[in-house]
Amino acid sequence: MIKPMQTAQSEMTLDKLLAEMNAVVTGLEGSPVFRRRLLEVGFVEGSQVRFLMATPFGDPLVFSLRGASIALRKSEARCVKVRL
């Protein structure tokens, strides 16, 4: 069985990033109200985002985006599509 090669341009959701990883936002999922909220805080296509840390219980997750630290629940971070 041949496994597909993973490229440097791997797509994933924001909740899958490891500490200190950088990615680029490629899209948003969720309700229109939720997507608008994400857009308002800076999660627009092409934005650079960096995973900073998880809180002691693993939720929420903290990201650096456009010079600000943004905390999202894991369920919210799953709605943000990113490319490495």
Present the secondary structure layout.
Blueprint: E1 11-13, E2 22-28, H1 32-40, E3 48-54, E4 61-65, E5 68-72, H2 74-77, E6 80-83
Describe the model.
There is one protein chain. The protein has 84 residues and is of the alpha+beta class. It has a single domain (11-83), classed as SH3 type barrels (Roll). It has helices spanning 32-40, 74-77; strands at residues 11-13, 22-28, 48-54, 61-65, 68-72, 80-83. It has a six-stranded antiparallel β-sheet with strand order 1-6-2-3-4-5. A hairpin with a 6-residue loop joins strand 3 (48-54) and strand 4. The longest helix is centred in the middle third of the chain and has 9 residues, at 32-40. The protein is globular, with a radius of gyration of 13 Å. Mean pLDDT is 88; it is low at 1-6.
